[in-house]
Amino acid sequence: MIKWLDEFLGAEGDDLAAAQDAAGDALADALSGEMDRQGEAFGAIGDAFFSAKHDEMERLMEALYHYGYGDF
User: Fold this and answer.
1) The dihedral of CA 21, 26, 29, 32: what is its sign?
2) How many CA atoms lie within 13 A of 45 on its CB side?
């Protein structure tokens, strides 16, 4: 009986380890995909901020030159 119980518990332990590995792999894949999407979103936000900053600097420089900044 003890031998059977030992074998049963060993097999259950192996099944549990395999299930944990499968769950870990699935979670890693899901997180990887989500991190890729977030990275793309942050990149787009950064590009938008850069573009807005550049456009605002252009407007500022145009205003300064319009009011004689180039004469100084």
Assistant:
1) negative
2) 6
